[in-house]
Design a protein that fits this description.
This protein has 10 helices and 11 strands. The protein has 337 residues and is an alpha+beta fold.
């Protein structure tokens, strides 16, 4: 007996629905397996990239030690690129993005003397004025920022004009004691009245100042808490050199141009100045300004190491103290990229 047509149609529809459901479940299952496989691969690559980043820190320390005794000519076992990097480090020239190829991926190293930044505890009032002006902070706020910093770092509890000690409502509302001692980390600057995230890292002055239309570039990238008051003439950025009060932009440009050495090309083994007076002369500066600068100063060094595997990157930043052939870790942090 042949089933009625409407029953045949219902059975066919049921079969089609079942096939669609099974196909959907199968596709979903395959997608989930693939997604989990991709996640596992990313985790594995991430771990390898992290290990490469850590290995890069060790490689950077080896380069620093080798740079103290590298000669004027590369030996047969030293690649030209490595020789150039070590010669530059020997003269206090920073290296950026130095590539190290490994079987599993690559490492990029940046090695910079901390003296290429300004020691925040050594800034004079004119230096603060210059730095704040260069970063776009309106003149009206300079005096109160400087006074608040001085009150935070001095030894007494006397409040300067426009300054702020512990009885200031800002600190009382936060229940925050004023340190009355030098700043020990750049993060500490964020505790001082007026030193907002924008002042430190860039952005609008909406927070605290209520000026959302004013955009500033931030000063934290120009600062350090390590080393002395001098600036490394071979590695300081234009922005850092421009923060030195009394030095013109054309003089800064001449100093930076002169770093290319006799061949006029950056990235060769004669980069940087061998003598401080040579650098001063390049910028048309008098010998009286020599107290502002240093040369070949790697007593404190910043190393940024980025490991990369299959497009996955992991980074680390370390500060080392480097004296008497000994390298001591001062601070370390890992960074997601």
């Amino acid at each position: 007996m042949i089933p009625p047509r409407h029953k045949q149609g219902s059975a066919l529809m049921l079969a089609l629905v079942t096939i669609v459901m099974i196909s959907t479940l199968l596709i979903s299952f395959i997608f989930r397996i693939r997604m989990e496989s991709d996640l596992a691969a990313r985790q594995r690559f991430g771990m390898k990239a992290r290990h490469l980043s850590l290995g890069g820190q060790e490689y950077a320390k080896w380069m620093l030690l080798q740079a103290t005794r590298v000669g004027n000519e590369a030996d047969e076992d030293t690649p030209e690129e490595l020789f150039v990097a070590m010669k530059n480090l020997q003269r206090g020239v920073a290296i950026h993005g130095y590539p190290v190829k490994m079987d599993e991926g690559t490492i990029q190293l940046s090695i910079t003397p901390e003296s290429s930044r300004r020691n925040v505890n050594s800034l004079s009032d004119p230096d603060w004025e210059q730095m704040l002006e260069n970063s776009g902070v309106p003149d009206d706020y300079h005096a109160q920022l400087i006074a608040a910093f001085r009150d935070w770092t001095d030894e007494d509890e006397a409040t300067r004009l426009l300054g702020a000690e512990e009885d200031d409502s800002y600190y009382q509302d936060l229940e925050l004691p004023v340190k009355n001692d030098p700043v020990e980390s750049l993060a500490e600057l964020g505790m001082i009245r007026g030193f907002t995230k924008a002042i430190l890292y860039g952005g609008t002055l909406e927070e605290y100042y209520d000026e959302p239309e004013v955009v500033v570039s931030g000063i934290a990238g120009l600062l350090t808490v390590y080393g002395n008051a001098t600036v490394n003439i071979n590695s300081a950025s234009k922005e850092v050199l421009m923060s030195l009060s009394g030095i013109r932009e054309d003089q800064v440009d001449q100093i930076i141009e002169g770093r290319s050495g006799a061949d006029g090309e950056f990235g060769t083994d004669d980069d940087g100045y061998n003598d401080l007076n040579q650098g001063l002369a390049a910028g048309g500066l008098s010998s009286e300004t020599s107290e502002l600068f240093s040369l070949s100063d790697f007593n404190w060094v910043r190393v940024v190491s980025i490991g990369e595997v299959a497009g996955i990157k992991k980074g680390s930043l370390a500060i080392y103290e480097f004296t008497g052939g000994e390298i001591t870790l001062v601070s370390y942090e890992e960074r997601e990229l």
